[in-house]
Every structure is written in structure tokens, then in C-alpha cells.
């Protein structure tokens, strides 16, 4: 390096198309919707493979049936997840252009590979779902297809995480060297990943509880469905307890001044954090009650709790990014009104 | 050069986007739009003629529409965007600033389209009789309208890249969207979609639908649609051609990389082929040769490939006409860069002042920033590989060529930067070209 300077480009001379607060609200909202469906997809795909594997080892038809239901749900939610992902991606690239484009280009080839990875994973998931009966006698092969699809689905989030973490660290860009290097180069990557994978399992478990509790209102559940429902509750309970630990690990991986924002320096963030921890504990309590005595009221209370926690997490995530970028944004302002002198026709 | 550069040295950066775009256009136009229109009319025809088997075939076709559009179709659509972010960040970034709300609308309508498609397919058996069948058909019609609407929106954005029209003066969204080629291009694409669907699907019907009670009425529907869509594609295509900028129109034949004669002959053959095919479909649907259907299938894919490559290529040297060159340089940037130096205004350039020692490195950075968008050093497309184009050139000649390159080859943007930067670029090119050869 000849001159040490940050590679933050000037913003485009064309203005950000819309009210910034509105766009920020929309990015939080649409991202939450997107990520919840990603969570579902990931947990059902991996859950199906795990259950099928366990079924093969224990020669249990029951586990196999459970796996099959999971695979069915995975294939529905994957389409919703992708479609819903477009909106937050649009907004992030419009309001954080200077950071997000650079971080994307730093891992350009990995970023483009998402297309191939997703198409492959989706087609494999279709094969996995539709060949359940046909390949009854080729269980190994069937299991393998599911395993590969799940492995791809577990890998793709790393690309996104590297991208959105790296955009927070402009001072580290000049020494970053591609995707695989970045995985171990930037702070918070693996903490975020762990927090995300656990959240997926918890969300998937909760979905099973929610879905079958809802279905139960109309018709009695089969044996397998009942196991999925209660299994879901247990998974969510234990994973959510673990999240208290992994969430804290993520928090302390932030830059010191950001951590302190959550510890009293910023009233809003501190309150958000405290409330979310409190709600998490309440949710665990409610889920514990469900395992003992499953009632309608507990069901509704837990759903409300779950939605609130997810909303708070999405909100805090946004505030973290804003806090990280604040000092840079003061130095490298965004274009909010058109810079007419910089938008000239070429004659 | 404000963002890091990603290079696909062998394949060529532009070709990545082109490849994804071609697949996407085949699916979005041919399957999502064209085939949907045909399937819905087939359902209607089956209802009128009480042909239950034909109805089932329409359902089968819909299943394929679901599978293809929700996987490869949707992902290549998002993929065009993901890949242009990497390959043309300045362009896609600017387009997003101009057309953000159009894209948001596009997204909402696309969600609607997917939901309608799923409803349409999964209620086929449930809503079968009397009034319910009519309701099902209405869903299908709404679906066809929605899938057309997604095209009606994206066409505004695509057409604006070639003819932004008054936008460059007014910067008004509506001027950009309803630009001079919007209507011709939308009309052309609408009928192209139907023609494409017929060309793509006939071979499968010919090979896999054995039952004459089904195949013949289906071919009849194809030929009715074809009788409308083929002349319309042709007429609106000419209207479209007439409305593009003269400079761009001149580049059409060149863009295909074919000699003019071959270009004319090939396109005439393709046109004659589709006319013969349609007439055959009308007159002797029972005896449609599989070879003819296959030829249609292949030439349809060939035509879309040609169309996409030409559409992207005739815009040269611009990426957004009269506003931004392919390498991301705008009028305002060019002015500043010619004054203070290209590297001085390039965020990611490591060299800011050129010295004897860093000259080659500086040249490499300039090459990546200004030439890489269209050229490779030694990629497979030999016309764009500079190791080939500059073979045997002395360094002085390269140096003399660069400042006038946009006059010698009007598809190239003018070089921007200082005299020292020209020298650095020439020194770098001379070095790598001679290392390659």
C-alpha cells in the first residue's frame, strides 16, 4: 500500500429514491420476513436429513415419516424465502451502496456462485421430496441427496454473512483477500453464523409446534404429527436457552464502543436488549409449560412472545449496522438530493 | 474505478451476464408469459369443446410451468441482478436509484404471479365443474395478465438503458420509464413471448403427446396464436428497430460477429422456417415432422441468444445511453479525470501519482478500470483479447492509438486521464501482450 486511505467510494450522484426512515423501516420488516423463512427452510432440510439418518440407523419407520413431513415443508418455504429476500437486498444496495457494493465485489465470485448453489440445492430438494417412495430401496442414495442439499443450504448463509459483516469494516478492506480468507479475517462472522443456525433450529421447532397446534384445532393429530409437535417444542426450548449464551457471545464480539451502547451508553439499545432477553426467558418458561400442560392460552402467549423476539432481533440488527457505519457516513455522505452538476448528459 | 474489480479472465466479464440473461429470457418470455397464455387458452378451448383430455394436458403443462419458473426462472432473474452487481456495479447501482420503485412494484407483482400460479395449478381438480370452472379460468386469465405485467415493468428499465430519452435532461422517473423505445419494445416482446412459447413447446408435444384427440386441438391453438403473434412480432420488431438510435442500429450486424451476408442469410432462413412451420401446423397438423419442430426449438433458442447479445452490444460504448459508458464513467467524472488524472479519482486505485517504478502497476489499474469491461488479455473471444489485437504493435503505436480509440472504433468509449496515464497504460499493455505472445 502506498497511501493508507479508506476505499469508501463517493456515493452515486443520483439520489436515494425515497424517504430514508421509510426505507429503513422497510428493510427491517422485509428482512425479518425473509430470514424467518430462511430459518424454516434450513431447519426443515437439515431436520429431515437428521431424522432420516436416525431412522436408517434405528430402522425406525416412524422417524422416516417424520423426516418426510419435514422435507415437504422445506420445499414450500424455500421458494417463499428466496422471493422475500429480494426486497431487503434491493434496499440494502440502495441505501448502503458505498459499503455494500464494495463488500460484495470483494467476494464477487462467491457472490455470483450463489446463483448456481441455490439452483442446485433447490433442484436437489425437489428430488429429495419426490423420490421418497421411489427410492425406498436406495435409502443411502436418497439420504445423500438430502445431505448435499442441506450442506449447500448451510453454506450459502456464510456468503451473505461475510458480505454484510465486511461492509461494516471499511478499514479492513484493503487487506481482505477473497471469500475464504474473509471467513476468518473479519470479527463476528462465526458468532453470527452460530446465532443464525441456532435461530433456524429454534424457529423450525417453533413452526412445528405452531403448525400442528393450529391443525389440531380442526382435526386430531396422527401419532407422527404429535411427535413432531412436541419434538418441536423441546428443540425450541433447549436451543433458545443456548441462544442466551450464543447471543451474548455475538454481542461481545462487536467493537467495544458498540458493545457499550447496549450496556447503558444508548438508552434505546439497552432497553431493546433487556426486553429481548426478558422475552426469551418468558418464552422458555412458556415452552416448558407446554411440555407439561398444553393449553390454548399458553399457545397464544408463546406465539406473541416469539413474534416480538424476532422483531426485536431484526430491529437491533439494524441498529448495530447503523452504529458501525455512523462515523463513516458522516465523512462520506450519501446522496439525498440530486447533484445536478454531476449528472450531465454525454453529448 | 470506485469498487473492487472482479475479473473472469478467460470467459470475459460481459459474457457472464449474457449467459444468465439468455437463460432467463427464454424462461420468462417463453415459459412464464407465452406458455401461460397458451395454457389458459387451451383450458378455455377444452371447456368449450368439452374435451376432458385436453384439459388434463393443459394441467400437465402448467405443472411444468410451475417447476421451471419457480426454480431456474426465478433464480436466473435474481441472478442477472446479482451478477451485474459484481460486473457492472456503477450501472446497476445507478439504475436502482432511478427505478427503485419500479423494481419494488415488479417484486410485488412477481409475488402475485407466483401465488396465482400455485393457486391455478393446485385448484385444477377442485374447481372443475360449472361456475367453478369459470372461476378457475378467470384465475388463469389474471395469472396471464400478471405475468405480462412483470414484463411491462422490466421493459421500461431495459429500454431506458438504450434510449433514456429526455431523462438525461429532466432526470424524471416517468421520462426514463416511458422512454422512446418503451412501447415498441414492449409490443415486440409481448408477441415474441408467444411465438417463442410455440417454438419451444411444439417439439415436446410432438414427441410426448401421442393421443390425436389432444395433440390436434392443441396444435390448432398453437396455430391460431401463431397466426397472430408471428406477423405482430415481425411488425413490432421493425417498429422497434426504427426507433433505436442510429449509431446503435449500425452496430446490429457487427454485434452478432457474423459477416453481413451470413447474417442476412441466417435470419432469412430462420424467418422462412417459422413461416413454413406455421403453415404446416395449419394445413397438415397430423403430419408435422419432428425434425421441423426440433429445428424450430433450436432456432428459437438461437434467436433469443442473438437478440440478447445484440441488445446488450449495440449500446456500446454506453451502458446507459448518453449518461454512462460501459466502464462506469460519466460526463462529470470524465471531466474531473481528464483534469486531475483517472487514478486520482479512482477510490480503489493504489497508485495515485505515477513514477517510473509503479508505471506498470498503474497501467494495470487503468486497464482494469477502463478496458476490462469489454476486453480480456487472452480470453476465448479472440476479437476482444488484446494479446491478439495488439500483437506486434510497438509501444509508441499503442500510446498513439489510445487517445483516439473512440474515433477509430466508435464502440469504444474515449480514454479518460492524463498523458502520463496513457503512457502507463501503453507500457502495461505492451508488456503483457508480449509476455503472452
UniProtKB/TrEMBL annotation, chain A:
<dbReference type="GO" id="GO:0046872">
    <property type="term" value="F:metal ion binding"/>
</dbReference>
<protein>
    <submittedName>
        <fullName>Cytochrome c class I</fullName>
    </submittedName>
</protein>
<dbReference type="GO" id="GO:0019646">
    <property type="term" value="P:aerobic electron transport chain"/>
</dbReference>
<dbReference type="GO" id="GO:0070069">
    <property type="term" value="C:cytochrome complex"/>
</dbReference>
<dbReference type="GO" id="GO:0009055">
    <property type="term" value="F:electron transfer activity"/>
</dbReference>
<feature type="transmembrane region" description="Helical">
    <location>
        <begin position="193"/>
        <end position="214"/>
    </location>
</feature>
<keyword id="KW-1133">Transmembrane helix</keyword>
<feature type="transmembrane region" description="Helical">
    <location>
        <begin position="140"/>
        <end position="169"/>
    </location>
</feature>
<feature type="transmembrane region" description="Helical">
    <location>
        <begin position="297"/>
        <end position="316"/>
    </location>
</feature>
<keyword id="KW-0812">Transmembrane</keyword>
<feature type="transmembrane region" description="Helical">
    <location>
        <begin position="267"/>
        <end position="290"/>
    </location>
</feature>
<feature type="transmembrane region" description="Helical">
    <location>
        <begin position="79"/>
        <end position="101"/>
    </location>
</feature>
<feature type="transmembrane region" description="Helical">
    <location>
        <begin position="25"/>
        <end position="58"/>
    </location>
</feature>
<keyword id="KW-0472">Membrane</keyword>
<feature type="transmembrane region" description="Helical">
    <location>
        <begin position="235"/>
        <end position="255"/>
    </location>
</feature>
<feature type="transmembrane region" description="Helical">
    <location>
        <begin position="107"/>
        <end position="128"/>
    </location>
</feature>
<dbReference type="GO" id="GO:0005886">
    <property type="term" value="C:plasma membrane"/>
</dbReference>
UniProtKB/TrEMBL annotation, chain B:
<feature type="transmembrane region" description="Helical">
    <location>
        <begin position="261"/>
        <end position="283"/>
    </location>
</feature>
<keyword id="KW-0812">Transmembrane</keyword>
<dbReference type="InterPro" id="IPR009056">
    <property type="entry name" value="Cyt_c-like_dom"/>
</dbReference>
<dbReference type="GO" id="GO:0020037">
    <property type="term" value="F:heme binding"/>
</dbReference>
<dbReference type="GO" id="GO:0046872">
    <property type="term" value="F:metal ion binding"/>
</dbReference>
<keyword id="KW-0349">Heme</keyword>
<keyword id="KW-0472">Membrane</keyword>
<feature type="domain" description="Cytochrome c">
    <location>
        <begin position="358"/>
        <end position="433"/>
    </location>
</feature>
<feature type="transmembrane region" description="Helical">
    <location>
        <begin position="16"/>
        <end position="40"/>
    </location>
</feature>
<feature type="transmembrane region" description="Helical">
    <location>
        <begin position="221"/>
        <end position="241"/>
    </location>
</feature>
<feature type="transmembrane region" description="Helical">
    <location>
        <begin position="136"/>
        <end position="160"/>
    </location>
</feature>
<keyword id="KW-0408">Iron</keyword>
<feature type="transmembrane region" description="Helical">
    <location>
        <begin position="61"/>
        <end position="86"/>
    </location>
</feature>
<keyword id="KW-0479">Metal-binding</keyword>
<feature type="transmembrane region" description="Helical">
    <location>
        <begin position="98"/>
        <end position="124"/>
    </location>
</feature>
<dbReference type="Pfam" id="PF13442">
    <property type="entry name" value="Cytochrome_CBB3"/>
</dbReference>
<protein>
    <submittedName>
        <fullName>Cytochrome C</fullName>
    </submittedName>
</protein>
<feature type="transmembrane region" description="Helical">
    <location>
        <begin position="290"/>
        <end position="307"/>
    </location>
</feature>
<feature type="transmembrane region" description="Helical">
    <location>
        <begin position="186"/>
        <end position="209"/>
    </location>
</feature>
<dbReference type="InterPro" id="IPR036909">
    <property type="entry name" value="Cyt_c-like_dom_sf"/>
</dbReference>
<dbReference type="GO" id="GO:0009055">
    <property type="term" value="F:electron transfer activity"/>
</dbReference>
<keyword id="KW-1133">Transmembrane helix</keyword>
Amino acid at each position: 500500500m502506498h497511501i493508507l486511505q479508506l476505499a469508501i467510494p463517493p456515493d452515486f450522484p443520483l439520489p436515494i429514491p425515497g424517504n430514508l426512515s421509510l426505507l429503513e423501516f422497510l428493510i427491517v420488516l422485509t428482512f425479518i420476513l425473509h430470514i424467518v423463512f430462511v430459518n424454516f427452510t434450513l431447519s426443515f432440510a437439515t431436520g429431515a436429513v437428521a431424522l432420516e439418518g436416525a431412522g436408517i440407523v434405528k430402522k425406525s419407520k416412524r422417524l422416516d415419516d417424520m423426516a418426510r413431513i419435514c422435507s415437504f415443508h422445506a420445499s414450500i418455504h424455500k421458494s417463499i424465502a428466496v422471493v422475500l429476500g429480494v426486497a431487503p437486498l434491493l434496499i440494502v444496495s440502495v441505501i448502503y451502496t458505498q459499503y455494500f457494493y464494495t463488500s460484495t465485489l470483494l467476494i464477487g465470485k462467491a457472490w455470483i456462485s450463489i446463483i448456481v448453489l441455490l439452483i442446485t440445492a433447490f433442484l436437489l430438494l425437489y428430488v429429495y421430496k419426490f423420490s421418497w417412495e421411489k427410492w425406498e430401496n436406495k435409502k443411502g442414495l436418497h439420504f445423500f441427496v438430502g445431505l448435499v442439499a442441506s450442506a449447500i443450504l448451510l453454506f450459502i448463509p456464510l456468503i451473505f454473512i461475510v458480505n454484510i459483516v465486511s461492509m461494516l469494516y471499511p478499514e479492513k478492506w484493503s487487506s481482505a483477500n477473497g471469500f475464504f480468507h474473509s471467513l476468518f479475517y473479519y470479527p463476528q462472522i462465526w458468532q453470527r453464523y452460530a446465532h443464525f443456525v441456532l435461530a433456524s433450529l429454534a424457529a423450525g421447532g417453533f413452526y412445528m409446534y405452531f403448525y400442528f397446534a393450529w391443525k389440531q384445532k380442526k382435526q386430531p393429530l396422527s401419532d407422527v404429527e404429535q411427535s413432531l409437535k412436541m419434538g418441536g417444542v423441546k428443540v425450541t426450548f433447549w436451543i433458545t436457552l443456548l441462544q442466551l449464551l450464543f447471543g451474548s457471545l455475538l454481542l461481545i464480539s462487536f467493537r467495544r464502543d458498540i458493545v457499550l451502547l447496549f450496556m447503558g451508553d444508548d438508552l434505546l439499545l439497552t432497553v431493546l436488549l433487556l426486553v429481548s432477553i426478558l422475552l426469551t426467558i418468558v418464552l422458555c418458561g412458556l415452552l416448558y409449560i407446554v411440555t407439561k400442560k398444553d393449553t390454548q392460552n399458553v399457545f397464544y402467549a408463546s406465539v406473541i412472545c416469539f413474534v416480538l423476539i424476532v422483531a426485536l432481533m431484526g430491529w437491533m440488527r439494524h441498529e448495530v449496522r447503523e452504529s458501525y457505519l455512523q462515523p463513516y457516513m458522516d465523512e462520506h455522505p450519501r446522496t439525498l438530493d440530486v447533484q445536478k452538476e454531476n449528472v450531465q448528459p454525454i453529448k | 474505478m470506485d469498487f473492487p474489480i472482479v475479473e473472469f479472465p478467460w470467459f470475459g466479464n460481459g459474457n457472464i451476464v449474457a449467459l444468465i440473461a439468455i437463460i432467463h429470457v427464454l424462461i420468462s418470455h417463453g415459459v412464464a408469459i407465452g406458455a401461460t397464455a397458451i395454457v389458459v387458452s387451451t383450458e378455455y378451448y377444452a371447456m368449450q369443446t368439452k374435451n376432458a383430455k385436453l384439459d388434463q394436458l393443459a394441467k400437465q403443462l402448467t405443472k411444468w410451468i410451475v417447476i421451471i419458473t419457480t426454480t431456474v426462472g426465478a433464480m436466473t432473474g435474481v441472478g442477472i441482478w446479482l451478477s451485474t452487481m459484481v460486473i457492472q456495479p456503477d450501472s446497476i447501482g445507478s439504475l436502482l436509484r432511478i427505478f427503485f420503485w419500479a423494481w419494488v412494484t415488479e417484486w410485488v407483482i412477481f409475488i402475485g404471479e407466483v401465488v396465482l400460479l400455485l393457486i391455478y395449478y393446485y385448484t385444477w381438480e377442485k374447481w372443475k365443474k360449472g361456475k367453478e370452472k369459470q372461476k378457475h379460468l378467470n384465475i388463469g386469465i389474471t395469472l396471464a395478465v400478471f405475468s405480462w405485467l412483470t414484463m411491462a415493468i422490466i421493459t421500461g428499465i431495459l429500454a431506458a438503458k438504450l434510449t433514456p430519452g429526455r431523462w438525461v435532461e429532466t432526470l424524471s422517473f416517468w421520462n426514463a420509464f416511458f422512454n422512446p423505445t418503451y412501447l415498441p419494445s414492449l409490443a415486440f416482446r409481448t408477441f415474441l413471448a408467444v411465438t417463442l412459447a410455440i417454438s419451444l413447446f411444439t417439439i415436446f408435444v410432438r414427441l410426448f403427446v401421442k393421443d390425436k384427440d389432444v395433440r390436434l386441438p392443441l396444435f390448432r391453438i398453437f396455430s391460431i396464436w401463431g397466426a397472430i403473434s408471428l406477423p405482430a412480432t415481425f411488425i413490432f420488431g421493425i417498429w422497434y428497430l426504427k426507433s433505436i438510435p442510429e449509431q446503435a442500429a449500425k452496430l446490429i450486424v457487427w454485434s452478432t460477429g457474423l459477416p453481413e451476408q451470413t447474417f442476412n442469410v441466417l435470419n432469412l432462413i430462420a424467418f422462412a422456417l417459422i413461416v413454413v412451420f406455421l403453415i404446416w401446423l395449419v394445413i397438415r397438423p397430423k403430419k408435422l415432422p419432428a425434425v421441423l419442430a426440433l429445428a424450430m426449438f433450436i432456432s428459437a433458442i438461437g434467436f433469443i441468444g442473438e437478440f440478447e447479445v445484440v441488445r446488450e452490444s449495440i449500446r456500446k460504448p454506453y451502458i446507459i445511453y448518453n449518461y454512462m459508458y460501459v466502464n462506469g464513467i460519466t460526463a462529470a467524472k470524465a471531466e474531473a479525470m481528464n483534469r486531475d488524472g483517472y487514478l486520482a479519482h479512482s477510490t480503489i486505485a493504489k497508485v495515485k501519482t505515477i513514477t517510473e517504478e509503479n508505471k506498470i502497476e498503474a497501467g494495470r489499474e487503468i486497464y482494469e478500470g477502463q478496458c476490462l469491461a469489454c476486453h480480456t488479455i487472452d480470453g476465448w473471444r479472440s476479437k476482444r483479447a488484446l494479446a491478439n489485437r495488439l500483437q506486434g504493435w510497438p509501444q509508441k503505436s499503442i500510446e498513439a492509438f489510445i487517445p483516439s480509440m473512440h474515433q477509430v472504433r466508435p464502440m469504444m468509449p474515449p480514454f479518460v486521464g492524463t498523458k502520463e496515464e496513457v503512457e502507463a497504460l501503453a507500457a502495461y499493455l505492451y508488456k503483457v501482450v508480449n509476455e503472452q505472445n
